[in-house]
Amino acid sequence: MQKQPTIRDVAQAAGVSVAVVSRVLNPGSGPVAALTRSKVSDAMETLGYHPRTAARELKHGPPTTLGLLLADVSNPFFAHLADLVVQEAHSRGIQVLLMTTQEDDRLESERLATLIERRVSGIIATPTGNNLEIWKKLQDLGTGVVFVDRSIPEMPEVDVVSINNVESARSATALMAAHGHRRIAIISGPATSTTGRDRVAGYQEALREAGLAEDRTLIRSAAFRGTSGGDAVTALLNLQDRPTALVVANTAQVTAVLRRLAHAGISIPDELSVVVFEDSPWTELMTPPLTIIRQPIDMLARHSVQLALSNANGTTTGKPTTVRVDAELVERSSVVAPKTA
Amino acid sequence: MQKQPTIRDVAQAAGVSVAVVSRVLNPGSGPVAALTRSKVSDAMETLGYHPRTAARELKHGPPTTLGLLLADVSNPFFAHLADLVVQEAHSRGIQVLLMTTQEDDRLESERLATLIERRVSGIIATPTGNNLEIWKKLQDLGTGVVFVDRSIPEMPEVDVVSINNVESARSATALMAAHGHRRIAIISGPATSTTGRDRVAGYQEALREAGLAEDRTLIRSAAFRGTSGGDAVTALLNLQDRPTALVVANTAQVTAVLRRLAHAGISIPDELSVVVFEDSPWTELMTPPLTIIRQPIDMLARHSVQLALSNANGTTTGKPTTVRVDAELVERSSVVAPKTA
DNA sequence: TTGTAAGCGTTATCAT
DNA sequence: ATGATAACGCTTACAA
């Protein structure tokens, strides 16, 4: 186990001062003679020198790391988002500290404390909805905060990047209505989440447009974690006047819902038409291939990183930005006209 | 945008010296009077003080971050691994820097350079197979290096955590043989990867045990990225003597394979029995439910973190550790006896 | 063009 | 029990 050479070792080996080494390390920070430069480079090479990030950051170096705080990474949607955020960040020379909250605001506050201590330049997060004060503080500190996928209504000053939740749920529901369904159910995220609320709003809008009456028993919100989606299905199936169509607007609960449906022996789309908010490749491999709402995750990733970085150092342009990208309804074969009973 | 208070500000506000503040920050580092402690705590509270990690690390503080270098995080297997690694690390107060290589050794070397500069205490990685010198250097530097899922044969000195690839492929193949299949194909990872080679070895072993002759045309290695799995399927289907069973041992190519199979109108398991190395929930939702090899990802995550951390600071116990956990063959409905032609 | 030296925010060693 | 003060490795005026 060898000891790490410092800038001083390099300077000595090259027969110059540390200032010169620093200059070749940071091109543009000052003049260096070509010959000197190569001598220094050689020294760095032979010594196997690597500048220490911690020291650089301490000396008000531009913070080069970004926090990515997600609910969890097992969820394919978040996994894909993480993948793209990392790629996008790397292409800008930024590193990503990955953290998860498990939808637990207690854990969230701990993670945020760590992020504060690290003085990350920005944070891209799916907030639990609490810890308002900490988020505020982060912004005051000049951290670029961006909420992705969801937001916190009480915090309109934070930038948000998400799909148009209202519109996507509306289009999914409208598709059902267009096929002649009159009893359309929705399983959404918890009512405390903006995605949950917005998607239900879109659903209601579609109902209104189709001249359909709203039935509260057909609106089920399921927690993101656990198997709440399955229970929602069971509840729906136990209704005396069962729905003929179902919009699964809670991405984290899609497999739980489908599993319960399969278990109950419900045949899709004969007994139940289905649209899910989930665009993993496997949705196309199902029998029948599922009609889905596809989220442009690459757009979400790109905008999140860009905003987080541009908001860093309090370079906030004043009014908060809200990026709302359109999701795409991909029609496959899980929606058909209801059986006339 | 407020300025961040330093330890000096706290000291001043509390009317003590910085040394005292540092002591209350690091309990056990020295005596502090109870009254003093509370005064300091109050000052920290009202000022909203957070110690700066960069400064602490500079002052030979225990490195508290770990690098997780994966091929990509879109792959559900890696995503799940990342999720659990993060959880495990957090439970030990360690942070995780997430990076991806896209299976590109050029990118890998860049990421590794960054990790060296950050002086991370450990790295958990799915190596591309190259950059041998850098990996060696990392170890010399006292970084705890752990290869997960795959390994590099030329680097027996590095700890490895993976499933028993030989045995899992053997059991999957043996299942086919037990059902009476005689033409069993396998689509594995590239021959340059240890997982690819090991799984093929297990496949061959099972063939031998079943007294079946090996047919080279039934062994297809597909790259991890892209849609190479689909091409392998097509090649297999074009054989004049088609296989009646297929082991998909390349996790990253499972959906590509299934998609091509569906596209070709091959019915599972009637025309082709299938076992896949992939345990995402959706495999159970397919028609028919897929027989799979389930990897105990939680074990992989736990051991990886533990090893990476214990190997840090050159605390290497001498001989490298190899943790090989057993994968589980979960029989569902995608394997049946071959149709007697 | 290059060198000197003063920080950056902590921790740790001595004194007091 | 508390306080000065010297590092830690790097950047950056300011000199030379």
Radius of gyration of chain A, whole Å = 26 Å
Topology order of chain A in helix (H) and strand (E) letters = HHHHEHEHEHEEHEHEHEHEEHEE
Summing up helix and strand content along with how strands pair, one would put the structural category of chain A as alpha/beta
The overall number of domains of chain A is 3
Protein name (chains A, B): Transcriptional regulator, LacI family
InterPro entries (chains A, B): HTH_LacI (IPR000843), LacI/GalR-like_sensor (IPR046335), Lambda_DNA-bd_dom_sf (IPR010982), Peripla_BP_I (IPR028082)
Organism (chains A, B): Pseudarthrobacter equi
Keywords (chains A, B): DNA-binding, Repressor, Transcription, Transcription regulation
Can you walk through the features of this model?
2 copies of one chain form a homodimer. Chain A has 3 domains: 7-58, lambda repressor-like DNA-binding domains (434 Repressor (Amino-terminal Domain)); 65-163 and 297-326, Response regulator (Rossmann fold, 3-Layer(aba) Sandwich); 165-294, Rossmann fold (3-Layer(aba) Sandwich). Chain A is 41% helix and 16% strand. Chain A contains 12 helices and 12 strands. In chain A, the strands form 2 sheets. Chain A has a 6-stranded parallel sheet with strand order 2-1-3-4-5-11, sandwiched between helices. In chain A, strands 7-6-8-9-10-12 form a 6-stranded mixed sheet, with helices on both faces. In chain A, α1 crosses α3, α8 runs parallel beside α9 and α10 (228-237) packs across α11. Chain A starts with 6 loop residues before the first helix and ends in an 11-residue tail after the last strand. The model of chain A has no long low-confidence stretch (mean pLDDT 95). The interface between A and B is large, with 56 and 56 residues. Chain A binds a DNA duplex (16 and 16 nucleotides) through α2 and α4.
